[in-house]
# Entry
Amino acid sequence: MNPKVDAISASVGVGLSILLWFLIPSQVMKSPMVSGMGPEYFPYTMTIALGIFSLILLIRSSLLWLKKLRKGENLRPVVLFPNLRRFLFMLVNFFLYYLLMGIIGFELSTFLFLVIGAIFLGARKWWQIALFAMILDLSVAYSFIWVLGVVLP
# Structure
């Protein structure tokens, strides 16, 4: 845990939440037939959560950084991507997930994405990987289809 890296990540999160806050109205069409929570409710809620958690991380990392400076500790240099190979693999895995979603559907592509990612990141027990992927996949699908009423590919 490097306070400088946390501060950079938190600043990016705050900036992204501010950007998304202003982009949501142009991306989500308001429906005149919807009473109560409209289609912009979920994106705004996630944007607010991203902003709040990023601010908490920024405050926490700033306080930790000041505490380490007062103690006279040398702070490690900032290394933004210490595991560049893992990052690139997960980025390729995500793009394959995105491409496969339109071909084989949401549930199967999500299951494959989670299994491949878990195996690459170090999980070894196949039954734990399969159980985790199945539970997460079905809970996300249930949340979007039945709770939010979103049609998935």
